[in-house]
From TrEMBL:
It comes from Silurus meridionalis (Southern catfish). Key enzyme of fatty acid beta-oxidation. Able to isomerize both 3-cis (3Z) and 3-trans (3E) double bonds into the 2-trans (2E) form in a range of enoyl-CoA species, with a preference for (3Z)-enoyl-CoAs over (3E)-enoyl-CoAs. The catalytic efficiency of this enzyme is not affected by the fatty acyl chain length. This is Enoyl-CoA delta isomerase 1, mitochondrial. Its EC number is 5.3.3.8. Keywords: Acetylation, Fatty acid metabolism, Isomerase, Lipid metabolism, Mitochondrion, Transit peptide. GO terms for biological process: fatty acid beta-oxidation. It is an enzyme of class 5 (isomerase).
Length: 308
């Protein structure tokens, strides 16, 4: 595992094409992975669990269910992102896995997006490390060589929406209380270019323009209308529909699907890979501004007051 973690991003030759393979490099990974537990049975199915992520791989189907289990709202902290990245990397390297379903083990929430406390009141070094981990999860999911389906069984703002959009297909629970979208503008922050491009590639330019400027959050039925999700189903059917859907994708020869995916996504992945350092600098400059810190502080308070 350590070798895997040290390895960085690489291109894997596949016939005449090169596929993207991400590496999760946080330097904090070994202590996190040591905390996880895992078991494997005779049919090569396996389960593993760490504090934020649980993975069940069915060796007979090749389908892995990756559940977010970071109470209370699956906010994407540095630890969460690191564990998720390691779990996905392990599955990508596991020949018995052909596709993953990302979902939540918590009620009503897929993910509350990036953990705001990681972007508030900390030092620039911390912000840089955190942002690198955000880049890594996007590079990992968007450039994933295997099939990735989001089973969105709750609200999914901002970073939660980004990870969903980075998957190949999205199925959302039909509860009208749930919301999904890039709401950054409502927090007084700005979605960076690769968030924006991921949305453009999902719903088109004009819808993204309106969504980003207003920080729009969509109900499941509206998300379906604009193509932000591909299917809306009763909540109790989200996981079974995701399993049926991934089974259809599995009928396609892996190499043909992988190369087609890479052809579509590689230019965007390459764009971020080529500008990672400047993107981190932009983030740190932006997030350390007094006015931005003030907006985030105000937003966090408003979340707490809403509850009171
Ligand atoms: C020039 C260009 C330069 C660009 C440079 C880059 C700029 C920066 C880009 C940053 C991109 C950011 C992406 C993000 O993902 S930001 C996070 C956005 N997320 C949200 O807005 C969601 C906020 N949360 C909610 O709406 C609700 O909590 C939710 C619907 C998810 C759940 O509601 P529920 O009622 O069930 O739960 P509570 O609201 O009571 O929350 C429970 C506790 O959890 C805390 N909480 C919630 N969300 C977050 C979060 N995202 N991070 C940290 N903590 C969160 C909440 O405060 C409650 O805490 P307490 O129990 O202590 O009160």
């Amino acid at each position: 595992m350590a070798a895997v973690l040290r390895r960085g991003f690489r291109l894997v030759s596949f016939g005449s094409s090169q596929l993207l393979c991400g590496g999760c490099k946080h330097g904090r990974t070994s202590s996190l992975s040591i905390c996880s537990t895992s078991s494997r049975n005779s049919s090569s199915s396996s389960s593993s669990s760490s504090s934020h992520v649980k993975v069940d791989l069915d060796g007979s189907t090749g389908i892995a269910v990756v559940k977010f289990q970071s109470s209370p709202v699956n906010s994407m902290s540095l630890d969460f992102l690191t564990e998720l990245c390691i779990s996905l990397e392990k599955l990508e390297l596991d020949r018995s896995c052909r596709g993953v379903i990302l979902t939540s083990a918590l009620p009503k929430i897929f993910s509350a997006g990036l953990d705001i406390t990681e972007m508030y009141g900390k030092n620039p070094e911390h912000y840089a490390e955190f942002w690198k981990s955000v880049q890594e999860i996007w590079l990992k999911v968007y450039g994933y060589s295997k099939i990735a389906i989001a089973a969105i069984n709750g609200s999914s703002p901002a970073g939660g929406c980004l990870v969903s959009m980075a998957c190949d297909y999205r199925i959302m629970a039909d509860d009208p209380r749930y919301r999904i979208g890039l709401n950054e503008a409502q927090l007084g922050i700005v979605a960076p270019f690769w968030f924006k491009d991921t949305m453009v590639n999902t719903v088109g330019f004009r819808t993204t323009e309106l969504s980003l400027q207003f920080g729009l959050m969509y109900s499941p039925s509206d998300a379906l209308k604009i193509g932000l999700v591909d299917q809306v189903v009763p909540e109790e059917n989200v996981l079974s529909t995701a399993t049926e859907t991934i089974t259809k994708w599995l009928a396609i020869p892996d190499h043909a699907r992988e190369i087609s995916k890479s052809m579509m996504r590689k230019p965007m992945v390459d764009r971020l890979l080529a500008s990672r350092e400047s993107d981190i600098k932009n983030f740190v400059n932006f997030i350390t501004k007094d006015s931005i810190q003030k907006s985030l502080g105000f937003y966090m308070n408003s979340l707490k007051q809403r509850k009171a």
